[in-house]
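User: Hi! Is it possible to get a structure for several chains at once, not just one? Here's what I have:
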Amino acid sequence: MSVLRGRKIYSVLAFALVVWLAPAAAQENKSAGAGQHVNPQRLRETLEKLSEFGRKPDGGVTRLGFSEADMAAREYAMGLMRAAGLTVRVDAAGNIFGHREGTEKLPVLLFGSHIDSVLHGGNFDGDVGSMGAIEVIRALNDNHVTTRHPLEVIIWTNEEGNHFGLGTFGSSAASGKFGPEVLARRGDDGLTLADWLRRYGQDPARFAEARIVPGALAGYLELHIEQGGVLDEAHIPIGVVQGIVGIKHWKCAATGFANHAGTTPMNRRQDALAAAARAALAVRDEVRAEPGRQVGTVGYMKIEPGAVNVIPGRVEFPVELRDLDPAKIERIWNRVEKRFAAIGREENVDIHCALDDSDDPASSDPEIQALIRKAAEEAGLATMDLPSGAGQDAQEVAKVAPMGMIFVPSRGGISHSPKEFSTWEDVANGAEVLYRAVLMLDQASARERPAQ
Amino acid sequence: MSVLRGRKIYSVLAFALVVWLAPAAAQENKSAGAGQHVNPQRLRETLEKLSEFGRKPDGGVTRLGFSEADMAAREYAMGLMRAAGLTVRVDAAGNIFGHREGTEKLPVLLFGSHIDSVLHGGNFDGDVGSMGAIEVIRALNDNHVTTRHPLEVIIWTNEEGNHFGLGTFGSSAASGKFGPEVLARRGDDGLTLADWLRRYGQDPARFAEARIVPGALAGYLELHIEQGGVLDEAHIPIGVVQGIVGIKHWKCAATGFANHAGTTPMNRRQDALAAAARAALAVRDEVRAEPGRQVGTVGYMKIEPGAVNVIPGRVEFPVELRDLDPAKIERIWNRVEKRFAAIGREENVDIHCALDDSDDPASSDPEIQALIRKAAEEAGLATMDLPSGAGQDAQEVAKVAPMGMIFVPSRGGISHSPKEFSTWEDVANGAEVLYRAVLMLDQASARERPAQ
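Assistant: Yes, the chains can be modeled jointly so their relative placement is included. Here is the combined structure:
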């Protein structure tokens, strides 16, 4: 598909042909009918078994990347891959690839997700796309379907960024985001990233080998829960992801003066918490000040000294802004900065922010979006186009391959919580669309890209 | 002086006489002239030596009550008392009394302060009044002054409330504030209060014996730094404390719903931090809404889950209000509660508060206030009447004896900080006024209260 990008007119024509031909092509290769190809019960059982790794009494999981629970879950996943006939390989960043041969010498079609969770996380984020990918392979096997491209199921390492604050770690290693200096980064447990990779059985010296060369993949697909409430509210079973929002994240500090809460008159205070409170509300005001789906959040405040009877002298707080349009993020931030400066003057508190992290928006490949829409339609499932407000491994893969994502509804829009839930029907629908999209992309890509 | 309370007309007349006669009476007993009786250099050396216990690299101290540094400082103070000829006794709450005989069989005149500090505290809070009291004894010795009342220097245990969150611990034991159940209270290090008293060499079974029976003391005086900036700003060397403000302290919790900061639209959030930020600002608004010296503070927020990419689901925060007038505290709190309810409705966040702690205001004895004013005047020092915004051991002693406090300026109003500072001249002035006030009270009380 990456060739498409250079030769637009050709490719759009070719693509239209493919979308029209693909279902027929897939039909040739499989024994099942036009109904459901994946096995919902088998997929559910696999997901329920996966949920045992790191399970908490509240029914959720804590399966942090690089933890013992994660290691055990990875073993489980590799076992499933092997049982499905895949050849398992773990790259230098710990990413797990399960390989299935194609009938032609073509670049790999990659699809999968992650199985690590946040602290006190749920049983669907990442899991659905990972187990769904393995289910697609099993369904292909059941139906004796071969593909032109080799297929690979991927389970990315440490998507949630545990220990090192490096979200989408495995896919970022694959996209070449990191230099070798990242290996010396020390996590919150005192171990370096290199130490952790060794625990994963990897040789840190070969870390750069995890990089996927742009163009080496025919395409990337990821099934994932929405993590927001848009699909659930609209009663739409399948989301076609337009792209993954850009995220900018600033670290801010309000510095006033800590003093005795009983003896310091109200008009002589330099209350860092009052200033930070006004700052947090200003962020919200400015995000709300224009229409659109942009979001802005102040997720915590670290308050010093933090005693009931001492006026806070210093407050650290982050500001996070997300949108598909980087210009909108910039515009909002400029307004926020002006507000912070005014608050600082009025409160006699210094407010200073520094950009801490920045992820550019990543667009889904328009042809893959169309193909997912078509796949859902053929499966009798309504779709809605929407952005991913959450960061995704797919945003990294988008740097090296045409990418598309399939969302299924999250009940109540809840995620990163033990209450995270998608119905088994929603999960099976997502896997079915992934199954069909893989086969369509197999046909589409084969027509676009000559054998190598 | 406590008898005075019942017989007002008599006593005011008698008191006027005393104030007029007292300087002359004091003169009869001492060899020094009308100038300075205390020895500023000796007082400074004692304070500087005390500052070595728990000293930190920034020049401040961490000498938490019940800590090793505190234990060592107590030994030092007891040594100073003995060297000044005092008979040392430690009561069942760990309070240190240094006794000096009087010439008549009269109730004790008590004066002193505390020597424990807050975490990262300074070298003046408590220390000035404790070492100042010992200096008064030494000056009386130097000048061969005897008193009618026995004098006792007091160093109260754990005024800052380390380990157990029980501020003015020793003086509260003396005022009978605690029942025996307090002994089972477990501190932040896992030890009970009874365990700590044993470390102090006390028998917890005798804890109730620390109680001072109302009327048993002729009076109580405490020299202390202001901890606020009023005297410093007005360039007034001596503050006559009108009373110690009442403190009410509520624990509040804002409960919203923690959700993904990227996928949850702005209009579907139940952001507990946004609600708490508005609540903190509402507290300030309502405190400022009427004239006066009242203060209100939100000293911290505990935010869960507290991640950059998660909308805060729950925020715990305290609200503290202080004023000499309890009705004003009540009035402000009623307005704050209404504001919280409105914020909760608007933010779809539950805000709930519960009264956590309450200290009634404590008035200084009006006659002792007049006597301190007179003592300062005779020493050629200007005075200002002002409340203590900080809690004090004196507020507990006020429950069992007529009480008065002498404040000296805190530079810049800074306290509970390594930067806490009072000039050595201010410190000596305070000790001199204490010296004179002790002698005046000795005469005043002797006239008011027959020998027992």
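DSSP finds twelve helices and 16 strands in chain A. The longest helix of chain A spans residues 424-448.

User: Great, thank you!
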